[in-house]
Amino acid sequence: MQRTRLLIIGAVLALQAALSGCAAVVAVPVVVAAGAMSVYTIVNVARNQYPDINFDSQSPEEETYQASYDAVWTASMATLKEMKETTQMMDKSAGTIQTDRKNINDVKWFNRDLGQSVFFYEFNIAVKPVQGGVSVKSTVQFVEEKRFAENRQKDIPEGSNMMRHIFFRNLRNTLQEKA
Predict the structure, then answer these.
(1) What is d(CA 113, CA 107) in angstroms, rounded to the nearest whole number?
(2) Domain range 2-178, CATH architecture
(3) Helix (H, G, I), strand (E, B) or coil at 38
(4) Which pLDDT value is given to residue 103?
(5) pTM of the full predicted structure?
(6) What is the DSSP string of 97-162?
(7) What separation in angstroms does the CA of 70 have from each of 76, 97, 126, 137, 179?
């Protein structure tokens, strides 16, 4: 019991450290003990790091900015870089960016045979000119993968919502700094 408690405390501290000084959750080695780590723990750590974001509200999937296409594209790329995301694919002329799939808690740090979960996410960003500005649409696939479950992967809307909130907050800040 004491070991499990220490592992949970270590996991929370690792997530807090990962969120400190960067714009999003980054891949960190996190030990998940007996299912104690959940997406709710991850969101709660994000609440501490981003007290200005209401994670209980639904994040928009799309926002429009009063700036040039080049400025919004550059700010989107800078935001992802600040969030320590790596791009799998980007095409400026098509206005699409896809980040690499990132795991929040690294599978090699615990025994998946015990049924614990691994959480993954990736961004798909679409930047396009629209009347009155430039639209940025962010879809985030945030999934929980279980080793021994009938449905091995399931989408976690709370995680997707959290990551969209963080991305759009940081994108707005980046555009304001450049203005």
Answers:
(1) 11
(2) 2-Layer Sandwich (3.30)
(3) coil
(4) 84
(5) 0.75
(6) EEEPPEESB-GGGS-GGG--EEEEEEEEEEEEEETTEEEEEEEEEEEEEESSSSS-EEE-HHHHHH
(7) 10, 14, 13, 16, 13
